[in-house]
Amino acid sequence: MLVKDIMSDEIHYVKVPGNRANAMSLMRKTNVSGVPVVKEGTKKLVGIVTRSDLVGNPDEEQIALIMTRDPVTTSSDEDVREVASKMIENNIRRVPVVDDDELVGIITAYDLIADALSQIEINDPVEGYMVKTIPTTWEMTPLSTAFEIMRFFNLKVLLSLNKDGKLTGVLTETDFLNESEVVSEKTVHNTSVGTEGDKWSWDSKSVLYVIKNHLKFSDKDVKDVATSDMVTVNTRTSVSTCASKMKQRNIEQIPVTNVEGELVGLVRATDLIRALND
């Protein structure tokens, strides 16, 4: 199977010069978490920008200074297994498709799951592909705190638990950003410096005003935002069945339980695509 067989040729992209507001607006409108960046007036790929990039650089407005330059790419005639290898080796979820130095599409880990892996009979259990260290939080945790927990784990998903420790919901990076806005905060710093006996320095006042942007979340708790209509798999569920469930629900991650129904892991599209090369 080749990239052109499953890639998305409905390309959502931003241009440089461009600003973060345009990129965020496009991502929210199209419900995607990353888009290619092209040079204005052309389809020449110059970078890729993700929601994580926007979150990590709230003080920067220009896309050219936020985006990842020289991203990993593929061609429409490359085998999907090769693309899977690129995603695994570079720990990425999406790869722009470039033919003749022009952006023609994009392929994601979800595309590989939905249109390639779900068509192959792989009976290996998902236990061999899941991650066991997963971010969880109490369902009544404020969103701002929950977001920091997710960031500390360097994952794009957070699972919520009730007071009894039972799984109640799933939040993705997209859910968090839909409940946030970038705000500016001004702080005042006294920069005067003096030495003993130097009354002029002690009496003088030098004030530095620093304006810093940061994400501000709504006052909601995790329970108010988390997806409670969840699908789960157990450790013995086959790779093919798990891929089919991701496709049916249009999701990129599924919590994993043991035979007793206890949460034991998380399997993501980026984990499952390893099965294409195993």
Q: Could you give a quick summary of the protein structure above?
A:
The protein is an alpha/beta fold.
Describe the structure.
The protein is built from twelve helices and 14 strands. It has 278 residues and is an alpha/beta fold. β13 (253-257) and β14 form a beta hairpin. 30% of the residues lie in helices and 28% in strands. The strands form five sheets. It has a four-stranded mixed β-sheet. A three-stranded mixed β-sheet has the order 7-8-9. It has a three-stranded mixed β-sheet with strand order 12-13-14. It has three domains: 3-108, CBS-domain, CATH 3.10.580.10; 126-178 and 219-276, CBS-domain; 182-211, no CATH class. The chain has helices at residues 3-6, 20-30, 51-56, 63-66, 80-90, 109-115, 143-153, 173-177, 199-203, 222-225, 239-249, 269-272, and strands at residues 14-16, 34-39, 45-50, 68-69, 94-99, 102-108, 136-138, 157-161, 167-172, 180-190, 207-217, 233-234, 253-257, 263-268.
Q: Which series of helices and strands comes N to C?
A: HEHEEHHEHEEHEHEEHEHEHEHEEH
CA radius of gyration is 23 Å
Report the end-to-end length measured between terminal Cα atoms: 16 Å
What's the name of the CATH homologous superfamily of the largest domain?
Answer: CBS-domain
Give short descriptive properties of this protein.
278 residues, alpha/beta, CBS-domain, three-stranded mixed β-sheet
